Amino acid sequence: MGRGRWGLWWRQGIALVLVGGLLVVVLRALSAARIERADMVFNNSTEISTLDPATVTGVPEGRILRAIFEGLTIKHPETLEALPGMAERWEVSPDGLTYTFHIRRGARWTNGDPVTAHDFVYSWQRFLDPRTAAEYAYQLWYVEGAEAYSTDVGQDGAPRRSFDTVGIRALDEQILEVKLAAPTPFFLQLTAFYPLYPVNRRNLEEAKAQFPDTWQFEWLRPERLVTNGPFRVAERRVNDRIRLVKNEDYWAADEVALRTIDALAIESYMTGLNLYLSGEVDWINLVPASLVPRLLPREDFDPTPYFGSYFFRINTTRPHLADKRIRRALALAIDRRAITDKIVKSGQRPWYSLVPFGMEGYTPQELDHAGKDGALDYAAALTQDQEEAKRIFAELGYGSGGRDFPTIELHYNTSETHRDIAEVVADTWKRVLGVDAKLLNQEWKVYLDTQSNLNFDVSRSAWIGDYIDPNTFLDLFVTGGENNKTGWGDARYDELIEKSKYEVDPAVRRAQLEEAERILMDELPILPIYSYVTQNIVNPRLGGFPGNLLDEQFPRFWYWMDDEELAERRAARGDDQERAAAPGPKEGLYSPAEMRRRAAGGRGE
Amino acid sequence: MIRFLARRLLWFAITLLGVVTISFFLMRAVRGGPFDGERRLHPAIEANLAARYHLDWPLWRQYLQYLGPFDWSDQGIGALLHVEADTDALQRLPADRVEGRTFRVGSSVVTWTGELGPTPLGGVLTGDLGPSFKYRDFTVNDIIGQSLPISVALGSVALLFALTLGLVAGIGSALWRGTNIDLSLRLAATAGIALPNFVIAGFLIILFAFLMPLLPVAGWGSPRHMVLPGFALGAPFAAYIARLARTGLLEVLSKDHIRTARAKGLSEWLILVRHALKGGLLPVVSYLGPATAGILTGSLVIERLFGIPGTGSHFVNSALNRDYTLSMGVTILYTVLVYSLNTLVDLVYTLLDPRIELEES
């Protein structure tokens, strides 16, 4: 009978454990503490890869890093011009090669250490060190000796050169001297760019001492990470949220209004929009393309030019695409407006050059097309262009009566929008030129691999500028560049790009870059399609959030307008738009400095 | 019992090793790598990155490093061996010939250079799933540790929904067989199976978050956040359980021992509870094992729709990101869960049906 008794015992035991276990889990889950809503919540659209400024490259990472770190300079939220950040002032030598930065006195890390010139030397050395494996290291290769330091690697992975060969020097605690290899007109934009943010040496070294094996993770934990920006990281949960809390020791803390910010990592555009519409999120940066027409009349959805280009790369090593006249015909035949009006729909501009719309001090050099001077309307110009495309094909002996043009493989990464665009392109080629195009979609990483290995005929592409300069686009297509991916090269083009790097006179440099783009648009290793716009939906009550060409936002300037200011803003803008709900504090949330100004009777911006 | 568990454990170890090995090499065979991005890296920087994550090693060495417990880097066992993938050296060596201390392994040439010292332990065998390639501030253990409890919590709520609704509907359906109640319950169950859970979720969001703003549209952090996703996740399971319970119960109710019980004059209620349910629910129990594993590890679709930071999204995203270690980590997690839950189901079987003995299984 012992056996039966045992059986009974453990049977009842299992039943108890099972039911009990389920109940415990459910109860625990139900009793989980509720997180209080932050002053401002935005959807960052994805989980960021890291908080280490030296090793990140992405836009979502940038949104977080701009809140918690600060570089030598910061950018004006609207014009993007360089403003003093960790450097309170700087001098540039007349030849544009030597920058002397004066580090702000009183700037502190969150662990109480003062921010010094040595912090920048340490951080930039770490950034350039091949063992850090910084993807963006080349952003600092404008500095003398920096490229060699990063790329001349010994057997053990360490740099072979001494850091003394690099033009970065702390003259004393307060003065940082940077010697560039070539005058770089956008260098002060770069010093505001997140890869060049400083990190705290003690933060890293203490983690290394305490966790010899896992310090790479430990120094970045919210409780250990030391930062110098307007906010600090309070909490972080993978794929959920990053909670930012105002850094009271920040040098301009007086100007910072928000006390807490949540950055969510919601990947679904639809869910993000749902959260926004229900008032739980104040800013989303992407919307489902199918809903754009319904969102456009709203006051809180206002797409503005964005420094990015959508284009197709052509594999110029394929025999049937090697002739630039063929590429020109392919470029002319495409109905760009069908793409911008019927597929992407947010006001993107049909585009005929690589450098996108919106930059001051540079004129994008369009390929030669009938609508170039603006005299013809779009439809008439397109008809003329398509006639010319037909003529080119006929002259080369293709089309009716001639040979059949080989089928073109049109290659894109899996996405509805990309598929629809490829279909429009394939369709116009078929109708206008009689060319068959086969659509091939590939999963993202496979698509990148195909593109890098030149295994395509025509491949969907896009590029977003890192800083406002044509160089961030034109540099792609130098012969053999790792992002060229077209097999195309041109000696004169390379020469112009190289020369422009050493040119001090802005007018001459501009002419060089414009000539380079003219070559590109004559040779057409790429087919430009459209110039980007932003997709932000923002709570109308959020202040300090002007749009800009790089779509970079600066949490340091954010605040909540009170009802009075909101009404003023709306009145100033006119009444042609659909009012959106503007949840948030009716009495506003302003920085201490602004509150004092208001109390004194003034109204500052 | 002990023998049964010991045998299960042994098979478990073999299965797991098989899963780890196959998925490791499958993952590496896929085109594209973790550091491929829209912006292609400078070759020197790409080499630096590969070196940092040991992607420049031959595959067998990466596999051994991943498996553990020994450290195969140059600081560990690697110090004993000099490994190079040098084609010149390969050509100098005749195929597979051992020449003094130099020999060939796969496409690399290995030279024995030193003596074995103490090396730090790591790798899967020690429970260390490695650093994530994509989420570089976290180890895979961190990520699973943070997201699994969320998926388990949501899954438990869903399971509770599924069991309550499913069993009530299934039993009711069987008892009132052929009536309108049966018909409508079966209709609901068929709809539950036929409608994908994202459609159900969409309806729920429109109804309960927008038309009647009772519950949050998405997010995680309070009990209110669990209701809609829990229901959407549990609904298809509830429907399936209802069907299984109904069929199982109907079969048992027509058996001889039930007739005997009726003849003895037992009440219908006692017959149901004491004699019919145990046997009738066996199909439900065998379905629950794998279903629970699936429900607890999260659902990509539901987690995406409701913005829930569980493990479900990692199953797909890690593979898309070529996050080798995370992808392997969640595969291992799933294997462990399915295996242990199946074992648990076998144990529960003996609880419900005294005729089943563990030793036979």
Write the topology of this structure.
The complex is a heterodimer of chains A (605) and B (361).
Chain A: H1 2-31, E1 40-43, H2 59-68, E2 73-75, E3 82-84, E4 87-92, E5 98-103, H3 117-128, H4 146-151, E6 168-170, E7 175-179, H5 187-190, H6 201-210, H7 215-218, E8 231-237, E9 241-246, E10 260-264, H8 269-277, E11 283-284, H9 292-295, E12 305-314, H10 324-333, H11 336-344, E13 349-350, H12 378-395, E14 408-413, H13 416-433, E15 437-442, H14 444-452, E16 458-464, H15 471-474, H16 491-501, H17 506-523, E17 526-533, E18 537-538, E19 542-543, E20 559-560, H18 563-573, H19 592-599
Parallel strand pairs in A: 1-10, 14-15, 14-16
Antiparallel strand pairs in A: 2-3, 4-5, 5-7, 6-7, 8-9, 9-10, 11-18, 12-16, 12-17, 13-17, 19-20
Chain B: H1 2-29, H2 43-52, H3 59-67, E1 81-84, H4 87-92, E2 102-105, E3 108-112, H5 140-175, H6 180-194, H7 197-211, H8 224-253, H9 256-264, H10 268-280, H11 282-296, H12 300-305, H13 312-320, H14 324-352
Antiparallel strand pairs in B: 1-3, 2-3
